[in-house]
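FIELD: query
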Amino acid sequence: MLQSAHEESCNTSNTFDTMFDDAKKPLFPGCKKFTKLSALVRLYNLKVRYGWSNTSFSEFLSIISDLLPENNEIPTSLYEAKKTLGALGLSYQKIDACPNDCCLYRKEYANSTKCPNCGLSRWKINKNSTKENSGVAAKQMWYFPIVPRFIRMFKNLENAKNLRWHAMDRKIDDPKQPGYDINTYLAPLIDDLKILWEEGVWCFDAYKEEYFTLRAVLLWTINDFPAYGTLLDLPGKSKDGMNSRLDLVEMNIRPELAPMVTGKVVSNTIRWLAHGPNCGVMTYEGYMVNGCSYHTKSRDDHRTVQNSGIMLVATTMQVSSAKDKNPVIGDMSFYGIIEDIWEVSYNTFNTVLFKCKWVENKNGVRIDDLHFTLVDLSRIGHSSNPLIIATHGQQVFYISNPVDPRWSVVVRPPQKDFLYKCANDDLGDMLPHYPPVSKWNSTSDIDESGDAYTRLDCEGTWVTT
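FIELD: result
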C-alpha cells in the first residue's frame, strides 16, 4: 500500500512523508496494535462495506474520538479522514451526466451547458422556481478508474496470485440505475480499457516479484435476466416472486406459499460438482487409498520400494479395426505410472485425483505364452485422459523382463482388505504382510466411508429444478 502511494504521490510535496508518519504514529499514547493510518483504514472499510452515510460516519468518528484516551489521533470528521486517506489513491472522478442519460459532459462536451441530443440543461433547476443552479449538476456519475485498481491488485501478494482466476464483472442495479442507456456510462471504462489494450501500464507483480506491462481486454460481459428485461423493455417485469417465497420458507412462516419441488431432487454433492472446484489445488508425493500406499514417479526414483504403478479397469467401446461396425462394450485394463497426486476441494468435500502416464494399449500391452501381462512403459498413449479418481485405480508393480528389458511384467498384489477381514488364521498366515511405513512427509488419508456430502445440522432450503 505504501509503495503504491509513494509512486503516485512522488510529485506532491510532503504528501508521502505525512502519510508515512501517520502509518507509524500510534493511535494514542501507548497503543501498540493500531496506528493512525491502520485504524482509519479499518473504520473506512466498515463504512464502505455496510453503506454508512457520510453524516453518520462523521458522528461515529467524533464518538470514537471521545471514547479513546486524550491526545488520540483519530480524525473527528469525514473531511479530515479523506485528507488522510487521499494519499492512498482512494479517489474517484465525478462526471456530470445528462438527466436523460444521453451523454456525459467530458472530452468535447466538457464545457457544454446543454445536452447535444435532447437539449436539456446540464444544471439543476430549483424546485421553487425555474432558475438554474449554475455549477450544480442535475446528475453525476462517480467513476472509479480501473487502471490504478489493477496496479494495486497486482501489488498485493495474495491478489496477484489469484488474479488470473477472476474475471471482472460490472453490474449496476439500484433505484438510480442508468436505465436503457447504460452504454453512456461505460464510456470512461472503455477509455481505460483502450489504454490497457493498446499501450499497457508498467506494473509490479508481487507474486513473481518482477515488473511487467499490464494489458487487459474485455472479452464479454455478464448480465442477469432482470437487467435484460429493463434494457429490452419486456412486459411483465416485476418483483421476483420465487425468491420472495423462498424467503418465507427460510423464515418458517406461511408454509402454504412455499414453492413445490417437482422432478428429481439434486443432491448437494451434485450441486457443488456443478459449481466447480476451488482454484487452489493441494499436491502430494504420497497418498494412502484403500489400504495401499501410492507414490509419484519422482518419489519412487529415490526409494527402493515401488509404489507408483497404477491399473484402471474401465468399461469402454472396443473395435477390431476402423471398419468394424459392430463394437463391443466391455471392460479393458489400462496400465500406467502416477506422475502427480492432486487433492481438489469442492468446499464441502475433497476429491483425490491421480495424474498418470498411460501405456498405449494397442502396441504397448501384450500377453506372453505364460499368460503374464507385459507392458512397454516407453510407449505412452491416451494423453487426453490423464486424470482418474484415486479410489478407481488398483495398485500394480512392474518387474523388468530379463529376456527383453524393454518389456516389464505386471504384478498385482493381493487386496489389503483380506489382512483385516480374514477370520481364518491359516489363511491369514498364507497372505503376505507388508510392514507399515513409520513416517510420511506429505501423505494424507482419504475417507472411504461413502457417506453423502450433505449437511444435516441445519434446515433444508427449497430449490427449483
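FIELD: remark
The first strand starts at residue 93 and ends at 96.
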